[in-house]
Each structure stands twice: as structure tokens, then as C-alpha cells.
Amino acid sequence: MSQFPRALITGAARRVGAEIARQLHVDHDLLLHCRRSRDEAATLAATLEATRPRSTRIVAGELGDEDARAQLADAIGTAALDLVVFNASRYVRSDLAAVPADRNRELRDLLEVNVVATWDLALRLRPALTAAARARGDAAIVVILDIYAQRPLPGHEAYSISRAAGSMLVQALARAFGSEGIRVNGVAPGTVLWAEGPQRAETEALLTARTALGRIGSPADVAAAVRYLAGARYVTGSVLPVDGGRGTCA
Ligand SMILES: NC(=O)c1ccc[n+]([C@@H]2O[C@H](COP(=O)([O-])OP(=O)(O)OC[C@H]3O[C@@H](n4cnc5c(N)ncnc54)[C@H](OP(=O)(O)O)[C@@H]3O)[C@@H](O)[C@H]2O)c1
After folding, report:
1. Looking at the domain assignment, is residue 1 inside a domain?
2. What digits encode the pLDDT tens for the residues 225-236?
3. Phi/psi of residue 242, each to 5°?
4. How confident is the model at residue 198, as a pLDDT?
5. Ligand 1 pocket test target in 8, 14, 16 with most atoms within 8 Å of CB
6. Which domain holds residue 122?
7. How far is the centre of ligand 1, averaged over its atoms, from the C-alpha of 21 (Å)?
8. pLDDT digits (tens, 9 = 90+) for 14-32
9. 166 CA distance to ligand 1 centroid (A)?
10. Contact 230, 24 (CB under 8 A)
11. Rounded Cα distance, 175 and 182, in Å
12. DSSP state at residue 194
């Protein structure tokens, strides 16, 4: 890799993560994390390498498993790491009528991927972030959250709980890491890309009607917010809504 600042993006292979990678690659070398989407990650890396060789590396691993996270942190190493974007997330429906063993496992699985993994990796990568902060005077973590951290999404209650915890995690880590020059912020998107699955038709009209700008956003809107927070050297502990004014509507 070159002398560009080094950034890690989780869940970078496709959808929003891939757009964040494309926008950050302008002035960062990238560690592209993926889990299952290895082919998509390889295609993305090849595209980016065509504009700047030796500027990307793929790191793979399950985020819901502590041993896998330890291996991932080892693969990333302790060299200065300027930016970590926690983009990967688990997004599944809640089944409140499920037997306790199943519904409790659903919440635990969501918390493990959406909260514990972020907490764990942030702490494991702290020395590399501190090294970057010492070298360049600044290092940053950006956690992609969701507007449904603020209010429950019906049918996705456990997911919303995990996002609310993620919002507090941003503030807690911002306070804990601030003296080391590591800033921690969040981005809370509204709808920027439809979830994969069959429910799209009935929700599209409803959601756009309840968004001040009258349209959904795009992955590029989230990536632009990440770029802003990556360079906003006096901003920490903030969660920036990127929701087209969805939060202003009933
Ligand atoms: N799409 C939206 O409109 C929207 C709205 C609000 C918030 N967000 C948030 O914005 C971010 C990106 O959205 P998205 O729709 O692009 O996300 P997504 O497609 O649902 O997920 C992004 C990536 O997360 C990775 N991932 C999921 N579970 C994982 C696990 N257990 N271990 C490791 N990786 C895992 C997957 O990587 P692999 O494919 O490699 O397995 C996946 O490609 C997410 O945090 C999402 O919650 C999105």
C-alpha cells in the first residue's frame, strides 16, 4: 500500500458499503471487509486498483463471532489506521410470537453483529487508530446506524433496539477515545436502498410520502456524509441523520 491514509470499511463488497469504498478511495487506501460477498469484493477491488495499484486489500470474516473478529483484527494489524467505517449490519424481521428461545436468540444475534462487534473491533483496533492520530493529528470511526435507532420500526423491533444501543456506543466511545485524538461519529440513514426481499411495493409509496424531500436517498448520500465526518476534525459524538427530512414527518 502507498502513503495514503488507511481506511477499513466493513461490509464493503456491495450496496452502500461499495459506494462508501468508491468515494473514500479518492484519498484513502482501503481495507475492504466482506463476509460472503467475496466475488463482489474482488470485482470492486479490481476496479479500484485499475485507478491506483496496490491501494486495496480484502479482509474477510464473520462479525458475529469473537474468534473471527480476533483473526480479522490480526489481519488488519497495528500499522496506523486512519479511519474505520462500521457499515456491515444484520437486518432481520422480529418474530414477537416466536418461542422464547428463538425470539431471544434473534435479539442476541442482532446485538452481537450490530453492537458487540463494533465495540469489540473498535477496542481491538484502538492501537492502530491511536498510531494514526499520533502521526496525522486525527483518526476517526464512523458507525452507520439507522433513523430507526430513534423510534421502533414495526416488525423490526429487535433491530431498532440494536441500533439504539449503537447510538449510545458512538457517544460512549467518543468520550472514551477523545483524549487519544480518535473521533467517533455515526450516520443515520433513512431509506437509501430498498432491502432485498419481497416487501418493496407497498412500502415505497408510504415512505416517500413521509419524507420531507418526497424521495428516497442513495448510497452516495451516505458515502458523502461518511466523507464529511472522516474529515470533520472538531466533530465527535454526533450522529448525522441522512434521511431527506424523514425525521420531521409523522
Ligand atoms: N439500505 C438502506 O436504505 C439503509 C437504511 C438505513 C440504514 N442502513 C444501514 O446502512 C448500512 C448499509 O446498508 P446496506 O443496505 O448496504 O446493508 P446490507 O446490504 O444489509 O449489509 C451490508 C453488508 O453487511 C455484511 N454483513 C451482514 N451481516 C454480517 C455478519 N454477521 N458478519 C459480517 N458481515 C456481515 C454483509 O456482507 P457480505 O455480503 O460480504 O456477507 C452485507 O453485504 C447498514 O449498516 C444498514 O443497516 C441502510
Report:
1. no
2. 999 999 999 999
3. -125, 80
4. 66
5. 16
6. 6-245
7. 14
8. 999 999 999 999 999 999 9
9. 14
10. yes
11. 10
12. P
β partners of residue 239: 186
The string of DSSP letters for 56-106 reads: EEEEE--TT-HHHHHHHHHHH-SS---EEEE---------TTS-HHHHHHH
- Please state whether beta strands 29-34 and 56-60 pair in parallel, antiparallel, or not at all (unpaired): parallel
- Which pLDDT tens digit goes with each residue over 196-212? 776 666 678 888 999 99
Residue 51 corresponds to which cell in the numbers above? 485507478
Ligand 1, atom 10, residue with closest C-alpha: 144
Q: Is residue 53 part of a domain?
A: yes
Q: How many domains does one find in the chain?
A: 1
Residue 250 lies in a domain: no
Residue 83 identity (one-letter amino acid):
L
Sheet holding 29-34, edge to edge: 56-60, 29-34, 6-9, 83-86, 139-144, 182-189, 239-242
CATH of the domain at 134: 3.40.50.720
CA distance 193 to 82: 28
